[in-house]
Batch of 2 targets.
Target 1
Amino acid sequence: MENTKLVGLVIGALLVALSFLMLVPVLADVVAQSGDWQAFFSSAVITGFAGGALMLANETDQRDLGQRETFVVTTLAWIVISGFAALPLCFSQAQMSYTDAFFESMSGFTTTGSTVMSGLDSMAPGILLWRALIQWVGGVGIILTAVAILPFLRIGGMQLFRTESSDRSDKVMPRPGQTAVAIGEVYLLLTLLCAFAYSAAGMNSFDAITHAMTTLATGGYSTHDASFGYFNSAMIDWIGVIFMLAGSLPLLLYVQSVRGSGETLWHDTQVRSFVTMTFGVAIVMAIWLSARGDYTFVGALRYTAFSVASVVSTTGFANTDYTIWGPFASMAFLILTFVGGCTGSTAGGIKIFRFQILGMLLRSQNRQTLYPHVAQTLRFGDRTVSRDVVFSVALFVFIYVATVLFIGLALTAFGLDLVTALSASATALGNVGPGVGAIVGPSGNFSTLPDGAKWILSLAMLLGRLELMTVLIMFSRDFWQR
Amino acid sequence: MENTKLVGLVIGALLVALSFLMLVPVLADVVAQSGDWQAFFSSAVITGFAGGALMLANETDQRDLGQRETFVVTTLAWIVISGFAALPLCFSQAQMSYTDAFFESMSGFTTTGSTVMSGLDSMAPGILLWRALIQWVGGVGIILTAVAILPFLRIGGMQLFRTESSDRSDKVMPRPGQTAVAIGEVYLLLTLLCAFAYSAAGMNSFDAITHAMTTLATGGYSTHDASFGYFNSAMIDWIGVIFMLAGSLPLLLYVQSVRGSGETLWHDTQVRSFVTMTFGVAIVMAIWLSARGDYTFVGALRYTAFSVASVVSTTGFANTDYTIWGPFASMAFLILTFVGGCTGSTAGGIKIFRFQILGMLLRSQNRQTLYPHVAQTLRFGDRTVSRDVVFSVALFVFIYVATVLFIGLALTAFGLDLVTALSASATALGNVGPGVGAIVGPSGNFSTLPDGAKWILSLAMLLGRLELMTVLIMFSRDFWQR
């Protein structure tokens, strides 16, 4: 690493920004006359002081992060920010242990949404707003990371999405700064739209705003223990379905669609497959559920569409507990936990484009077998897929599955049963939220897990959020060799 | 398909051979004065008649199987032979339903070893010998398929093992016929050695011969319900460990080692990794088990080495029930179920060389990320690994995992719980034998599963045995297009 000072400067600046963000819940608690404002204010002071000190100690004129530094800064940023954002949870009326607070904070910033908290309905607004805010900010953070950083680090095949690559003639926004601002605008606009819709359907303003934030972030934190089950409204559920899916589409495509250049949303192969798959699975499940006689088809579709959208968008809201539908449904949702949304969104998981590339590879390999003398090329949309992209994608999927298994193994070492361990591992790595079983299922709560399991799951959320390799490459010998 | 006649002729010839094989248990039952000889004799007549009719109806001078025909013949052979080999199980004193008999027969020929039979200890010798024979013959069948057929069909990266490829200067046996005979000789020799060792350690001749057959086949059928637990002998257990591992090494390497040309066994990178990994895991587990105070280290090692060797060699013998060691051990064995032995052996699973190739790919991709302008090449032993091989391997692993999940999903539709469904799916696809849980665990028995689940598992065993793509390619549209 040539430039550790710049790493410190960036992290310091992010902490200062975080300390300002903490003033929002201070305001909310002051208005609501809750004593919790002190927890947020003292955390803001500590965070701001730490960030300022880090900035002063690392003053430098250098402004170009090298490749190795980018890996370090990206990983460290997520860990350090989660570490400080956990402070108000410790200091507040919730009185959480630091382990619990860190888990909740990491689950928030990674937009996972697994929670160790209960009794949300009677909590002060500050803490509820804080949970929504860290998911919302984490969401925009990961979109910018996915659009601006990961493609250039060649992570998991995302080099396919280099917007400035030379094979693209339709350069909508030549400068990265402009792209970031445009994405931020779209994200804010969608959140406002969602909040208005929730509010019109009957949520109060506070619930509408916080749920809109965690919907677009595909995070899944709610202000009620029963999540969407609290509202018990089909209209609110369907609005949730629409905006959870909206949050799992590539944000850059909205920008391009609005500006009338580039592909429109529905022409994008990833978007089409994702939306078709989601509704296809929801409809098949609704037919299956209504055939068992528990629901009418339309009644069933409300629950299956919401649950499927919640899992594939990696949000994690619940309007019912899908595990009561039996092992077939539980297994189906466990498989869906691996899928994920589109790349360049707030969704986690393996993501649709990787399945599409492997599907194309399968077809081309079959043809190569049957017609050994005909050359096969791989195309994704209007781009030729290079060998390098296919290698990255295949490796990503392999490491993803292996990580789910080994995180699951580590969890069993703390005494978790197989289903809880495997589904907790898969849901954390996919940044989904709920798993299968009494503890980590949609009606469960992660609070009863042993502390060791919470730290392992926090690591899994981080790994999943940063597409595994951003973190794992730092454990290779080559990374530290000059 | 240009030559359906030749397909019929080959299948017919295999059935005639199978009918002769059925005369062996006839002899055993006649000697033991068991009435079961009639079950085998009538099955031999039916099978021989069917095979003969098929041969007569498909007489042809053509002797060259096309590529498409080879896929069809390989898949059909395993299904039809299992179908006829199931007959004596229906007709005998065991009085099994055809579903049970087919499951047992497919489990035998694929050297999986999952069983629906109990009360083995008191059964007539014919039926016990038959179960051992079909595993032994299935074992040599799969080695020859792996060495002579799959590399040329470009299945799962096995094109890496084309023995006649031009980048090999040490052509030990230029003609495939000679190779097949040499492999058969080694297989027979190892089986005899194993039988002598078992016998010297205290097994009676019948047990020694049948267990030697199912050990080298890495099949795992026993003549006792308690499997190796029946003998309760550390010596016999360790002999089992050695020959289970011997059966999971590439048989061709023995031939080359004996003839003094090519690599010797221990110089082979796949063999080294496999053996090191197996004993490494066994030792770590033994330390863990003895630290819990249940066993001494040496006592624990006997059980962990046997169980680990049994699972990674995909044999499936049990000298204890590893699931009583708790969820950590169960999860570890579930992961080991995916691993498998070396290619070109009787072992199933994903197999060591595929992990090695993915490991090399990971290293090379990391380097490519860190040094974008340095070209990276992949090497396996003394060979350069082509892009094509890496694509095949990556695709194989992806489809393998997806198949485990979807077979698991299909099993839950029959009401199986998640752990039973997932581990039964993984153990069938890996041709291992036992899974996790009360029904499919090492102390369990597959007989109580619903019939539908047994057919699905039979399909999974077939898919795993033929390295998935041999079967699955026939479901692609391209396969049937001219």
Target 2
Amino acid sequence: MISASALKALREIVGRENYLDSEADKLLYSYDGTPMLRQKPDAVVIPRSADVVSKILRLANDEGFAVVPRGSGSGLSGGSVPVPNSVVLLFPPMNKILSIDEVNLTAKVEAGVITARLQSEVEKRGLFYPPDPGSANISTVGGNVAENAGGLRGLKYGVTKNYVLALDVILPSGEPIALGSESVKDVQGLNLRDIFIGSEGALGIFTTITLRLLPKPEHSVVMMMPFDSIATVGEFVAETMLARITPAMLEFLDRNTIRAVEDYAKLGLPTNVAALVLVELDGYKSVVEAEAQKIAAIARKLGASSIASAETLDDATRLKLARKSAFSALARLKPTTILEDASVPRSKLPEMLLKLEEFAKQESVLVGNFGHLGDGNLHPTCLINERDSDEVRRSERFFERAFETAVKFGGAITGEHGTGLAKKKYLEMATGKTQVDLMRKFKQILDPNNVLNPSKMFDIESLFRSKCERKIARPT
Amino acid sequence: MISASALKALREIVGRENYLDSEADKLLYSYDGTPMLRQKPDAVVIPRSADVVSKILRLANDEGFAVVPRGSGSGLSGGSVPVPNSVVLLFPPMNKILSIDEVNLTAKVEAGVITARLQSEVEKRGLFYPPDPGSANISTVGGNVAENAGGLRGLKYGVTKNYVLALDVILPSGEPIALGSESVKDVQGLNLRDIFIGSEGALGIFTTITLRLLPKPEHSVVMMMPFDSIATVGEFVAETMLARITPAMLEFLDRNTIRAVEDYAKLGLPTNVAALVLVELDGYKSVVEAEAQKIAAIARKLGASSIASAETLDDATRLKLARKSAFSALARLKPTTILEDASVPRSKLPEMLLKLEEFAKQESVLVGNFGHLGDGNLHPTCLINERDSDEVRRSERFFERAFETAVKFGGAITGEHGTGLAKKKYLEMATGKTQVDLMRKFKQILDPNNVLNPSKMFDIESLFRSKCERKIARPT
């Protein structure tokens, strides 16, 4: 429990109207998008300025409580789940788009801006912010930067990190720093900026973010095609790459997922196929049309029976609905949905998918697979009942084997969701102890009292230090 | 001086045939591409494997000498200039291209591979490695990663960092680690990989590097056009951006540079104009041709008297020669050529260029300006005689004012050359003390004895610790 005096000081910093501590509020902010993780905070506050964030962190260092920054809470690794003795900071109210510069192709925003709102604002000006996490309609840019969010356009356009130019950050000590610059080219000193991107709220809190934009593609086409085997899907990806085509989106759904989606959304999908592949091509109209023909030819050659194609926004949205509703559709099958995101090199995808099917059978858990074929980022989704402890154990074994295989194939235990609480126990297996120790030391340099989003990604024993010890260690 | 016993142990580690210590060798490796920086090493060695690099670094920690990794020595910030009591490690002999994967679009190379060789090898397969530093014909991939090298294609394709997937690194302690993965999507733990990119040889030594590749553009056009004023050049850049065109190359030469080039290469350039702008467009033929027409229309509207255009490789190379020979041409005018690379947001370029002309006049130094219009990365080049101490002082004042202005405009003191020895004294002005202190702490965590390329970017007082103190501090 945080002391009453500390909470009183906190309330004075943020103002009564920005201070929430009813049981309902604590319950509401006790979890995020990650299943089976819950912890009530001692209080929830809305910081209205960088200066307030600073003051809160100074107080946290003085009083020895933890601070957990939160965007929209859509994260899938527990990054914004509170820890014991913590205060949650809500950023959605800090949601100004400060500038959109059409010559420098940059946008400067507050951390709480919703990603989809930024996308539509820049698109009105003929510009384009490519990162497109599945949560874009609700997630914040700050949360996206904290998790280095990926999404559907990774293959052609990369991830959030590739679009962050500058960050205004409040360090765990409460000190503000400005990382990066508005120049696309900036190599002064060590690249501190990029270690803050994807730091899952543990190294600093972002207040404003300057992003790089692109011109909006002139045209796009979405195509959907069924394949009879996972191996053929692999061949399709390989032949697309060998044809030197880089789709903006290259997604798939496996049989279990297709059936769940069809059952849920009634889209008239073929339920007797091994996989459905979705392709989006964007760019200049003439190029997109030529590439669409090549893609169709490759698919037909590999036996795709029917190829749906959409050029209008409405038709495209309808086709994408199959992929977009995958998670919700699967979620209906069982009380608990565990969505993971191991990634492997593109060429290892078919092998990885067959392994996942094998592991699911052996552990007798219901698994649906879908995800980003183009960048090798899979979303094996385990459907269980968290009250069935044996099923929970079997699902854990399934994921453990899945992660080990991903690493063995030269991939990663997480491609875009982050490590957080959900995957911290696998981190050392994936990166080795030396790297996790290095990460711990970097965290300790920035946050000696371990007040900022502690115990995410990895544990630090100083977390268990008493408040007075913390005071001794306070940076001067 | 490194002790005779330490040098003997070093010779045994690398083998006599890989150990150089003649006065000629020491002189040959006492400098790099940066003017006015010279320091003889105690020895120069060729490590033939990662294991040998490991052993050398362990010895350096035991014996308390410094290790300076060196690619081709083409760096322009002194990154590979030896320090007192140092051994230079030469990487060009580690030059195997280990694999080129046409489905995953990756290349795995040893650190000593020459960048242009990698480019031509992947282009033979219809692939493309975009980073294109001016030194590409001689610089190594390892050196490019160490400096996060930029180049001519930054606007459209970004810099070296955007293409590094995985790094095999030997830490200063001698311990090997593997950073990143072959997956394009990888967010496990903190992003350690990217702080090693651009770390100027001070955090670790790269042995193998896995790079991301793109499909090779189908077609390209190079255009050259003169403008009567710097302000018009700014309008040209702005209108190009507003037309949503992203050239692969957008370069310029100012009057002084044009005259030097014409005098040197006799290309028939117009010497009575304020600036020459070079544009390269690449992509699908139909798109490139349409964009070329738009660019020409914008240029004509802004008064460009003549527009040269080249579609064949030979013609394009001829046009590019004006830009490529800028440095050599300017270098002929005076004994000493100081090439810098401040960067500013694109829209600030004209203002910045006028400032540079003003500073050059006020400090009465001869300055030629050229560089990367598209990404705001300028190369003010000061031509002096280093034996004229007053002229040296005036050139220093010129650059100091240039860097302060770049930072004031939201830019950086270095866009692509790095901080090294040449710009370390400006680093704190550019990033603030808090950031430099953080950089120091990160360096100290990785290199407590400060043996690896010490005193580059910033100084660390432990550098001046005695050998025995170093031994005490040795990591266990």
